[in-house]
C-alpha cells in the first residue's frame, strides 16, 4: 500500500494564513520510537480520512517535560514547559490532541499554571468525538467478534478519569471487549510511568509488565489494546517474554480503527 | 449515687478530656510544622468529599467485606456514643437513665444500641480472624511488625471489652428492673433485645451483689471510653477524627497533576527572560530562609501531607495495590505514611524536650526513614491514592522527596540522569536530534 500522509506543520499553515482546527502533539515516542511511529501514522491516516484540519509542530516540538518532572527535576520540566508554551502560544493554539497520555496529562494539567491554556484531548477522546459528530464511520471489519482486552494507561484513567472513550471505540468495532480483573480505576500500571521507562527496575521478584501481561493473558485475548506508547512497549515486551507473540497482538486503539478501515 | 461518686466522676471526666485536649493540641502543633498550602478553594466540592468519603464511607465499600464490617463498627461507634450523653448526665447529676422519660423512643434507642453492640462484637471478631488467623497479606506484611501489629489488635480488644461492658451493664440493670416490687431507683425503662439473654446469668445472685456489679460495669464502661479516647493519640486510630478534615482538605486537582514549584518558576522565568541583566546585584532579603527544592524532612512537606500521616490507619490497601510492592520491590506506600508520622513524632518530642525549639538531630525523613531505593521504585501510577479510603496521597510525599534528591543532591539513578541530559540537549528523553522529529513522515 503506497501511502501518502498529509502532515502539515504549524509553520506551513501559518505561511498559508491558515489556523488548523487542532494541533496534533506527536510526542517523543511518536516521533522517534519505531513502534510508536506506527501509531502516529495510523492516527494520521484516520485524520486524513476524516478530513480533519490539523497540523503538527514538527521540529519545533520538544519533550513535554513529563519524565523530568516525575523524576523530580522541576527545573528541567519548567524549562521545557515554558519553551513549548512560547511556541504554542505564538501559533495561537487552542486545541491539542495527543496519542500519549503522559503528554496529555502534562499539557492539560500542568501547563495552564505556567501560561499554556489549551483544550487538550487524548486521541481516543478525539476519535470518539469524530464518530459522534458523524465525521468518521467505522465498521468492525477484521476485528468483528475478536476478543480484545483494554489496558488502562494510568495517566489516562486514574490520573484523568478517561475510561470510556477507548472502550466505546473498541465496541464500535463489533469486537468482544473483555475486561481484566484489574481494570479502570483499579487497573495495574504497566511499569513505565513516573520515569520508570528510562531506568531499570529496583530489585524485586518480578517485572511489573510481566505481572500486567499475565492479567491480560488471563482474559485469553486475541488483541491487547493500548492507548499509550509506553504501555504498548511494556505489554509487547511482556507478550514476547511469555512467547505469545504469534497468538496475541498489542495494538493501539488508533491502529485498531485504522486497520478496521483498511487505511 | 452519692455525692462522692459524682465528684469522682467529674474528676475522671476532667482528667480524660483534659489529657485528650492536651494531646490534640500537640497534634495540631505538629501538623503546623508543615509548610503552607491553600486548600480552602471550592468549599462545596470539599464538603461533598467529606460527606461522601468520610461520613458516607464511599471508598471503604470498594472492598465489600471489610467495607461493610467497618460501617457496622463505625455506626456502632457513633450511635452508641449517643448513650454516652446519658451516662455523662447520670454521672454528673446522680440520676439514673435520665432519658427514660422519652418512653417508646427511649426503648427504641436502647434496643438499637444493643443490636449494634452485638453486631460490632461480631464484626470485631471477624476482623481479628482476618488479621490473626487468615492473615490477609496486607496485614501480615512486614510494615506491620511490633507496635503497629499489636496496636491493631489492642483496638479490637478494646472494642470487645467496651461492648461487653455495655451489654453487661444493661443486663444487670434489666435484672434489677425485673425484681418483683422494684429495686431502689431501677425504674422500668429500655428495651433489651440482646442483654435479655445475658440477664439469666444473674439468677440466684443476691440483688445487692447485682447492684454492685451494675455499678461496676457502669464505671468500667465510662472509664474504658475515656481511656480509649486517650489511646487514640498513641495509635493508628486517629482516623476516626482526622478522616473528616483529611477528606475536606484533599487536593481537588486531577490525580495526574503534580504541583508546579513556584520557587522554580521564578528562577526559570528569570533564566528565560532576554531582558534580565545577569550582572545585576540580586535583591537579598536578609531574613529570608534559603529555599530548598523538594523535601528532605517533615518541615519541608506541607501541612496536609503531615495531616495525611496522622490520618493513616495502616489498612494497607495502598500497598496491596502498588505495582512496585506487588512485584517485590521495597516501596510500600503505607510505610511512607508510617515513616512520615514516626518522624513527625520524633521532631515533636525533640521540640517538647527543648523548650519549644527544634534542635537539629542529624536525622531526616529521607535516608533515615525512607530510602532512595523505595522512592525510585514508584511508577507514579496513583493506585495508592485511588485506593486510600480517606484520600491520603503517599505519591505527593514520594515526589517531593525525589525532587530533593534530584535538585539538591543530583542523586538520581544514572539512567535517569542520562534521560534528563538528553531532554536538556536535544528535547527528547533519547539521543535523537530535534531536527529529526518529523522524519517518520517520509519513512515507509
From TrEMBL, chain A:
GO terms for cellular component: plasma membrane. Keywords: 4Fe-4S, Iron, Iron-sulfur, Metal-binding, Oxidoreductase. InterPro entries: Cys_rich_dom, HdrC_iron-sulfur_subunit. It comes from the Bacteria. Residues 22-108, 148-235 form the Cysteine-rich domain. GO terms for molecular function: 4 iron, 4 sulfur cluster binding; metal ion binding; oxidoreductase activity. Pfam families: CCG. This is CoB--CoM heterodisulfide reductase.
From TrEMBL, chain B:
This is Fe-S oxidoreductase. One of its GO terms (cellular component) is plasma membrane. Keywords: 4Fe-4S, Iron, Iron-sulfur, Membrane, Metal-binding, Oxidoreductase, Transmembrane, Transmembrane helix. The keyword Iron applies. GO terms for molecular function: 4 iron, 4 sulfur cluster binding; metal ion binding; oxidoreductase activity. InterPro entries: 4Fe4S_Fe-S-bd, 4Fe4S_Fe_S_CS, HdrC_iron-sulfur_subunit, Helical_ferredxn, NarG-like_sf. Residues 303-334, 368-398 form the 4Fe-4S ferredoxin-type domain. It comes from Flavobacterium alvei. Gene3D superfamilies: Alpha-helical ferredoxin (1.10.1060.10). The chain crosses the membrane at residues 6-24, 68-89, 109-129, 154-172, 216-234. Pfam families: Fer4_9. It comes from the Bacteria.
